[in-house]
TrEMBL record:
Ranges of Basic residues composition bias in the record: 238-254
Gene Ontology terms, MF aspect: kinase activity
Entry keyword Membrane: no
Organism listed in the record: Aequorivita xiaoshiensis
Residue segments, region Disordered: 234-254
Superkingdom of source: Bacteria
Matches recorded under InterPro entries: Kinase-like_dom_sf (IPR011009)
Pfam family, one: Kdo
Alphabetical keyword list: Kinase, Transferase
Protein name stated in the entry: Lipopolysaccharide kinase InaA family protein
């Protein structure tokens, strides 16, 4: 079996220990998440805590695609995190990735530094009275504007994929995770507004974010609000309709 291991030069001194942890992934560390598709475990080496993400083993057709035609999720995660870091955009520090090939991609892992955060964007949706909520939303909008100005179209810009730390004095820092679906391209106004759709914001949240984005983009508040709200509502209707159809199919089978 052939392997491809790439490491951030900053961590080259830990290469043997990191590779050993990857080879023994099932035996080392503690689980952070254990999903059907991906598994994340946490390990500590030389006083530094790392997260190792194991991606779901692809089927035969997908494995061939990943070997010859498309970058693996682990490789994309590492490269995209490195690009974000170069832009000064928050994401857990990329450390390394490894791919194993044998008649296609068999397994891949992505390693990043573990990030201690205070909450994620979901809290702002589920707790309307969350302390300093409006200010956090405004700073989050500034963060998203910075993404767009750097030509970053984060296709999974959803509530669980932004981690937030409170650094004091009403200032917050934002970090993107789950990076393997991303495009680097010029961001038109329509693309920018469409990029907010997966956040599942309420009308109040849209109003706050639209006001802030309009100031940054030199666009009218009304047009920004209406466009952002349209994309958000269209996305929510589509998702709710899909859930309804799924429930109907389940009832018909019962």
């Amino acid at each position: 079996m052939r392997e491809n291991f790439v490491i951030n030069p900053k961590y080259s001194h830990l290469q043997p220990a990191l590779k050993d942890a990857l080879y023994q992934f099932e035996k080392v560390g503690e689980y952070v998440t254990k999903g059907e598709r991906n598994v994340i475990k946490k390990i500590e080496l030389n006083g530094v805590v790392f997260n190792i993400k194991s991606f779901k083993t692809p089927n035969f057709f997908q494995s061939i695609i990943y070997q010859y035609f498309r970058k693996s999720k682990a490789k994309r995660s590492f490269e995209y995190a490195s690009k974000l870091a170069n832009f000064g955009i928050g994401t857990p520090t990329p450390v390394a990735y490894i791919e194993f090939f044998s008649l296609g991609l068999k397994q891949s892992y992505y390693i990043s530094e573990h990030l201690d955060y205070d909450f994620d964007f979901r809290v702002l949706i589920h707790k309307p009275k969350f302390e300093n909520r409006e200010e956090i939303l405004r700073q989050f909008t500034q963060f998203t504007f910075k993404l767009h100005e750097n030509g970053v179209n984060f296709l999974d810009h959803s509530p669980g994929n932004t981690l937030i730390t409170d650094v004091g004095n009403n200032q917050y820092e934002f970090y993107l995770i789950d990076l393997n679906r991303m495009r680097f391209e010029p961001m038109s106004f329509e693309k920018r507004m469409n990029n907010f759709r997966r956040l599942w914001p309420s009308k109040t949240m849209v109003k706050i974010m639209a006001e802030e984005y309009a100031k940054l983009y030199n666009k009218s508040t009304s047009e920004t609000y209406e466009t952002m709200l349209k994309y958000s509502r269209d996305f929510q209707k589509k998702k709710n309709s899909k859930k309804l159809r799924k429930r109907k199919r389940q009832r018909s089978r019962a």
